[in-house]
Design a protein that fits this description.
about 500 residues; alpha/beta; Leucine Aminopeptidase, subunit E, domain 1; 20 strands
């Protein structure tokens, strides 16, 4: 656990991180530090070895026993700065320092950002960026030296008056809560499928939420799922030895008469494709097929710890999609909880099936709105790449707010279409709908046809987020390590405020 301080002058740190704008040079506080160290920082800038360009860094050794190192991190041009770029710069500094085994850090917090965004938001965003950058899933590494160094202390350093200091301290507390939600989602997503089964996902949710006031968890087993008529969820789970679970997390933050916002997350704990089995190279990373579930659980955890005055329900249909003699098949016809029948054309289009039952169950709450999150289609990744996620909705107000708040926290959404042609493409000759379809060709427009499938199970204001950018592969990014990134938690928490 990291301890945070807000201080006018850092003391006994392993490194002081200083974000620097291109063309503007050192900020007011950094200039004071530079003067005390005989122009050491300005010498580096004047030499053009460091110019403050985006993602540029320079580690400087000061020969100061209290602050032996300074890390300059480039922000790029001031006119181009966004909260996303600022958080990435802070996160980059944290990752670099951890990689060099540093434990006690200071981050210069400039008046520019405080004036632009407000002290509380700056501190919240910086704290969440620090905590997210510092997180590492390394518990299965057996060599001690291979584990990532844990941060012990972080100081927000600058010339602050009493009011600013108080707002920064409030923001730190808030940022820690949001980051815990994000990192809880990442921890669930990074857990290997040898451990992460539907039952384990349910038990970890119960364990994590047990001590949070007003947050109640209920887990439905196979018998209860069968009784509810969730034929799609049951079918997807049939090929696995691990039984399905339906997780219900209810946070009642205000009068229960007020309609809740319902979040539905796809919880496929491993996706082999079932009998429509994936090629080997596409089966790698399929432990991440439950990141929609992870994000809605991380969101409700953060919302409850922030004590938001809202009613929020998280629903997770959880199953493992495996091939076996008992697995569901192409040509099967399934009946969802709302009574609609589904022709199965491909068992690898299973996420929309479990979401069909989750979205149907959401109707019981008579919700004010429903948002589902899912790693649903490769088509969305093909369309947008791995830095943005797709959003589908006919609700203009929902879209506008989700788009606005995603930008404000540094996550990125891009709207993709719904419409009659996509709904028509999902009609079946022998059932109400089919689980696969394209517009003008079987592979055309399939992110939108998948969303159109989900829309069949909604009778309330609804938005669907296809999590194209839910993971960072290979070595991750300079500001966040590889694996699940918790995309959506920060956006949804801000949306729910």
């Amino acid at each position: 656990m990291i301890t945070y301080f807000v201080s006018p002058m850092s003391s006994k740190l392993d490194c002081l991180i200083i974000p620097v704008f291109e063309e503007k040079g050192l900020g007011q506080y950094a200039k004071l530090f530079d003067k005390e160290h005989n122009g050491l920082l300005s010498d580096v800038i004047e030499s053009k070895d460091f110019e403050g360009k985006k993602s540029q860094t320079s580690l400087i050794y000061t020969k100061d026993k209290d602050i032996p190192r300074v890390l300059l991190v480039g922000l790029g041009k001031e006119k181009d700065i966004t909260i996303k770029k600022y958080k990435e710069a802070v996160g980059m500094g944290i990752v670099m320092c951890q990689n060099k085994k540093m434990e006690k850090l200071g981050v210069v917090t400039s008046q520019y950002f405080i004036k632009k965004y407000g002290g509380k938001k700056v501190a919240s965003d910086m704290t969440s960026a620090i905590e997210i950058a510092a997180y590492a899933y390394d518990e299965h590494k057996t060599e001690k030296d291979a584990k990532i160094t844990k941060l012990k202390r972080v100081e927000f350093v600058g010339d602050f008056n009493t009011s600013t200091k108080r707002s920064l301290e409030k923001g730190i507390e808030e940022g820690q809560i949001i980051a815990r939600g994000v990192n809880f989602a990442r921890q669930l997503g990074n857990t290997p499928p040898t451990i992460m089964t539907p039952t384990y996902l349910a038990s970890q949710t119960q364990k994590e939420f047990k001590s949070i006031p007003k947050l109640n968890v209920k887990v439905l087993g196979k018998a209860e799922i069968t009784k509810l008529g969730m034929g799609c969820l049951l079918a997807v789970a049939r090929g696995s030895e691990h039984e399905p679970r339906f997780i219900i997390a209810e946070y009642w933050g205000t009068d229960k008469k007020k309609k809740p916002t319902v979040l539905v997350g796809k919880g496929i704990t491993f996706d082999s494709g079932g009998l429509s089995i994936k090629p080997g190279q596409y089966m790698i990373d399929m432990k991440f097929d439950m990141l929609g579930a992870a994000s809605v659980l991380g969101t409700v955890k953060a919302a409850a710890e922030l004590k938001l005055k809202k009613n929020i329900i998280a629903l997770v249909p959880a199953a493992e999609n495996m091939p076996s003699g008992t697995a569901f098949r192409p040509d099967d016809i399934l009946k969802a909880m709302n009574g609609k029948t589904v022709e199965v054309l491909n068992t690898d289009a299973e996420g929309r099936l479990v979401l069909a039952d989750g979205l149907s169950y959401a109707s019981q709450y008579k919700p004010r709105e429903v948002i589902d999150l899912a790693t649903l289609t490769g088509a969305c990744m093909a369309a947008l790449g791995l830095e943005r996620s797709g959003i589908f909705t006919d609700e203009e107000k929902m879209y506008e707010k989700l788009s606005r708040v995603s930008d404000s926290v540094g996550e990125q959404l891009w709207r993709l279409p719904l419409g009659e042609e996509y709904s028509e493409a999902m009609k079946s000759e022998i059932a109400d709908i089919k689980n696969l379809g394209g517009v003008g060709g079987e592979r055309y427009g399939t992110a939108s046809t998948a969303a159109a499938f989900l829309q069949e199970f909604t009778d309330y204001p609804w938005a669907h987020i296809d999590l194209a950018s839910a993971i960072y592969g290979s070595k991750g990014r300079p500001w966040i390590r590889a694996g699940a990134n918790g995309f959506g938690v920060q956006t949804l928490v801000e949306y729910l405020r």
